[in-house]
Amino acid sequence: MKTILILNGPNLNLLGKRQPHIYGHQTLVDVERLCQSVCPDGFQVSLKQSNHEGQIIDWIHEARETTCGIVINPGALTHTSIALLDALNTYEQPVMEVHISQVHKREAFRHHSYISLRADGVIVGLGLDGYAAGVRRVVALSEER
Ligand code: DQA
Asked: Is the CB of 94 under 6 A from ligand 1?
């Protein structure tokens, strides 16, 4: 069984409650269900969320040995964290970057992503469907290998 890590950064534990006009009413439990539902046989997802940068970096290091791809919504760390970029640069499988909201329609500080320097694809503004698209792409890339 191949495992795809669905990694979520700060404040995404409040998905469904936090600014629902921007992020919608669904929760991370819904994200996990959706991602699992688009996995073909032989693939499974593992969803994790932390508000702590170091924890996310530790999970990426662990994922080097245990996963076939990462779908990551780094939250605001997208725009600030060179350490997270460096961690993803140690990871040798596909990485898809997801943002629920259309960040390019929002404040200028959300327009730059350190993570995009590493990501194999970037999905922005599709709501939770962006996670499903990320999973599908990881599966496709992983089957090509
Ligand atoms: C986000 C966009 C980021 O700018 C923001 O800090 C988030 C969520 C999104 O999913 O749209 O926390 O990554």
From this structure: no
